[in-house]
Amino acid sequence: MKRKLNLLPLIIVAIIFFALNAYVLSGLGAINQSGLLSPIFWVFIIGLTFALFFAIQQMRLQGINKFFQIVSHAFLIVFASEIVFAFFLLLGDVYRLLIGLSTNFEPGGFHIASRSNYWVDFAFVMFCLTIALFAYGITQGKYAYRVIKHTLYFDDLPDSFDGFTLTQISDVHAGSFTNPKAVQKGIDMINAQKSDLFVFTGDLVNNASSEIVPYIGHFSQIKAPFGQFSVLGNHDYGDYIKWPSEADKIQNLNQLKVYHKELGFKLLLDEHVELHKNGEKIILAGIENWGIGFGERGDLNKALQNTDVNDFKILLSHDPSHWDAQVKNYPSKIQLSLAGHTHGMQFGIEAFGIKWSPVKYRYKHWAGIKTENGRYLNVNRGFGFLGFSGRIGIWPEITVIELKRK
């Protein structure tokens, strides 16, 4: 039976969207009184909206192409900038209303002043700044790599590993890259850390294993004395595109595993290795992707099989929801877990003591260090980008962690 399309949500969204644009146009009209403003504005908005619908239909049939990227990003920039403009315009209108109400008790009665050109100009400046911010995020921000360093203290760290360093990156999403030179800058920054160990916590590609091929020469440059290790993320399984057959999907995953080897990464699939130094050891374990809503494939028990409860353990697990669900209360203590997945939604603010991103409403812990029950979790903000071809406020991250004994 054909599923009936519920038009009510679409109608409500359409009404809100066009009401927003009508309100924005009323503000722009205070700046420019030209009779051409209104028709030009509506032709642009309606044209962009229809272009987005067409691009979405094409994307469903052919996948993400250049046209979809251009139109979707243009729509996002315009929509976000309009919201900012409308917000500041509304503040001014509310203020005018309150002033008007206060005059209700004075001789002459209720009166609302006209909009202040200064306030409308300010709202328009914020509108322009928002566009500029998105333009920076798309052209520069997505490759603006940051090295973020943490020093973590443990009372059960083997003496020989006091001062041991590891570098973590996550979420490469190689299919999104368009600037090999910029990517190489990130690779150089990774190697410049000269860490003892390198780890990658999943999502090497968006969908197809072939996406990493142009960048094998880049990421294979990464070397560390104790090795380079990796795990799979939810995108690595090819779950988000349609394959000719299940066999093709399986072949894609198998090929991706081969590419991990060509990169010089030891892929940990529900298994662990021992890292030895001066007769002492720590455990490095990695599981297949386990994430609430993104496939619970990994087997933590299998990954830690034949390890001792007193061993010092580091776990690579792509999705931070795994830490809350299983790891932080696992009977055999896992001292440090390393994850990624969230990207910090590639949008937010981390400045002036503020740490906020919309992704916080989906993930309890979405970036940086979290400690609970005597155990640590680090969520890397991602090396690459996906969907929105840019980053604003949440920059691509290279994490360096130093292990110290208390």
From TrEMBL:
Q: Which one of the record's GO molecular function terms can you name?
A: UDP-2,3-diacylglucosamine hydrolase activity
Record's keyword annotation contains Iron: no
Single GO BP term: lipid A biosynthetic process
Q: Name one GO cellular component term.
A: membrane
The Calcineurin-like phosphoesterase domain extends over: 165-344
Regions crossing the membrane: 7-30, 36-55, 67-91, 118-139
InterPro entries, per database record: Calcineurin-like_PHP, Metallo-depent_PP-like, Metallophosphoesterase_sf
> Pfam families, alphabetically?
Metallophos
Keyword Hydrolase belongs to the record = yes
Q: Which UniProt keywords apply?
A: Hydrolase, Membrane, Metal-binding, Transmembrane, Transmembrane helix
The superkingdom listed in its UniProt entry is: Bacteria
Q: What protein name does the entry list?
A: Metallophosphoesterase
The organism that produces this protein has a lineage beginning with: Bacteria, Pseudomonadati, Bacteroidota, Sphingobacteriia, Sphingobacteriales
